[in-house]
Amino acid sequence: MLNQALENTTLEYGGLSYRTERVHHIRRESLKINTLGLLHRLWPQLVWVSTTIGDSFSLYKKEIKFYCGEKLYLINFSGYGTSEGDFTSLASVHTAEYFLSPTTAFVELIKEEDMHHVQSKTLLISEITSGHRYELVCITDSVLIRYRIGDVDTCTRFLSEADDAVLLAFKKTEIPRIPLISIAYRTGNLLSISGENTTEQHVMITLRQTVQKWKQHGIYVDINDFILYPKLDAFPARYVMFLELVHENSQHDNKVINQQQKILQNNEIMSEIEQQLCEANHIYKDHRDGDKLDPITCILVRTGTFSIFLNKILVNTHVSIVQIVPHRVLKNEEHIQFFYDSRIVNPN
C-alpha cells in the first residue's frame, strides 16, 4: 500500500520527470558535505527529528544535529523496550529522561553493585533511589518469563511540581513518587579483566576529556566511533581500543588525515587516553598501579571503517538494522581482525 501511495504522489507531481529531478536534487544537496541542515533542505516541511540520543548514543548527537541544522528540533526517542513489552515513555522533549511505565510488562530492578551476583536482590520501582544505577528485570504480562534485559539505567531524579521540564496537569494534585530514568549502558558493553568493571560511560567520559586535551595541542578532532576488546593473550592483559576520528568542523578527509598524523607521531598525545581512563575509573587506575593491567593500546582506523562494519558485517548477522545497538566490545575474532586490517599505519 505504501508503494502505491508513493506512486500516486509522484504522478501528481509529474511522474517520471518529477522523480528524475528529485533524484538530482537529493544528489546535489548530499554532496554539500560541509553545509548544515541536509534534512531540512530535502524535506522543507519537516518540523522535528526523533532518535535515541542519550548516554550510549550521545556520541552521535553532534553529527545528527549537523544534519538537522538550526531549523529542526532534535528530541530523544519516545520510548524503549523489547519484543516482550514497552517499559518507558518519554518524560520531556527537553531531556533524555523517561518514565518507567510497566503497562505491558512488570519491571524489577537490580542495584549496579549487585549485578554480578547469580541471584541478585531485586527492587520495585518504589524502592529505587535518585542518583543510582539499576539493571532492569522484566516479567511478561503472562508471568511465564522473567529475565534480565541487560540494560542499566540511571535514576536521575523524581518528578516534582517545581520542575517545569515535564508538563504536569493544570489542576494541583499530589504527585506520587515517580522516578525519571535515563539509559546508561548495556551490560554486554562492560570490560572487566581483573574486576575493574570499566563501563561504556567510563570510556565515553575518557574520550570526551581526551578530545578537550588534544585541542590544547592544536589537534581539532572529534570521535566518530570507537570499539574495544580485552587482549587476554598478553601479560599483563590490556584493553585495545579502535578509534575512528573526524575533523571537528569539517567532513573533509584531508583535514582528518592531517590531524591523525599528528596523533600517530606523538606517543604523549596518544597516551592521554590512558591518563583520562585512569581518572574516569579509579579501580582501573588501582589495577594499573598494581601491574595487574598493561596500558590501553589505541589504534586509529580509516574513515568509514565503522560504517562498513555496520552495513557489511553486523547487518548480515542480525534480523533487522533497527535492532542493532552500538557495539562497544568485540568478542568475535573475525570482527577483531577486521579492525586490525583497517588500522592506519604510521608512515614513519
Account of the protein in words:
There is one protein chain. With 348 residues, the protein is of the alpha+beta class. It has 3 domains: 14-74, no CATH class; 81-189, no CATH class; 200-341. 31% of the residues lie in helices and 23% in strands. It is built from 11 helices and 13 strands. The chain has helices at 2-12, 16-30, 38-42, 61-68, 200-216, 253-264, 267-270, 272-280, 282-289, 305-314, 333-341, and strands at residues 48-51, 73-76, 81-82, 85-86, 88-90, 98-100, 105-111, 133-140, 146-158, 179-186, 221-231, 238-247, 297-300. Strands 5-6-10-9-8-7 form a 6-stranded antiparallel sheet, with no helix packed on it. Strands 11-12-13 form a 3-stranded mixed sheet, sandwiched between helices. The chain has a two-stranded parallel sheet with strand order 1-2. Strand 8 (133-140) and strand 9 form a beta hairpin. Helix 5 (200-216) crosses helix 8 (272-280). The chain starts with a helix and ends in a 7-residue tail after the last helix.
In short:
The protein is an alpha+beta fold and 348 residues long. It has helices at residues 2-12, 16-30, 38-42, 61-68, 200-216, 253-264, 267-270, 272-280, 282-289, 305-314, 333-341; strands spanning 48-51, 73-76, 81-82, 85-86, 88-90, 98-100, 105-111, 133-140, 146-158, 179-186, 221-231, 238-247, 297-300.
